[in-house]
Amino acid sequence: MAKLAPSDLAQVLSKMPSQDFSTDVLVGFETSDDAGVFRLNNNLALVQTVDFFTPIADEPEIYGRIAAVNSLNDVYAMGGVPISALSIVCYPQKGDWEVLGEIIRGGQNALNEENVVVLGGHSVDDQEIKFGYAVTGTIDPKKIVKNSGAKAGDLLVLTKPIGTGVISTGIKFEKVSKKTKEAALKTMTTSAREASKIMQEIGANGCTDITGFGLLGHTYEMAKASNVTLKIESEKISLLPDVLNLIEQKMLTRGDKNNRTYVGDTVKFKNEISKEMQSALFDPQTAGGLLISLEAEKAEHFVSKVADAKIIGRVESYKEFLIEVE
Known about the structure:
By secondary structure, the chain is of the alpha+beta class.
């Protein structure tokens, strides 16, 4: 199941009535941030998000675990600490109940490992399986990390390799090796908890997690919200195994086209950036990494502490394009 095209969704949300009756809404849907934030008092706010999708792995337990990690990531991207979750289950009434049990168990185990408790949930009879969570976390209102905080002079850090969308498509067509599949599953089941914790400790200017809109879709949102130009150094981006080869074989998702439309002409590619690499940058991710904007010294410290984290670019004052890919 692909996300709705971001350009279409943006048109709908732009027509929603204002909700300015509450001064305690610190982050709402208007900003394209990863989660909403509602202030309870001067020292405590709630971080809330929801995410669910169709099976991303053949193994039910792994699917449930990925769904949990993916849902938690939105809270971690804001610098919050998740505390509770409600499950969302769409499953056929005549389906195999053992399979559903494994999905739910996988998700609950992943959440419990993060000290997040499942309080309940909701289910519907649906021929297409879908699973995920609504997650609530807490945060100090003064320490919210938004996607609008990137500053000229910052470096950009990405905490995971990309390519899960392409690989997931390849798996469906039996084009993926065992090694490549295992690498994709490993990255999708890796929590962002430690990266978020270190981000908060050293102080980040901005952050977003890379999911359905792809690296460039979420980079676009950060650049637009921050009113800066983000320069991406493509050779520094880690790709999962065989990603470019699978793209050559047309193992692309619908999100490739949708994300290109969303970013539009706000991105400039250098001529030497291959079409395959461009597709990798637009590829929708599941439980992807955090894209963090940090002062230079902090960025170097961060990558020394977080496995797989790489500096992939820099932030400059806004020029002609929101994104430049070198």
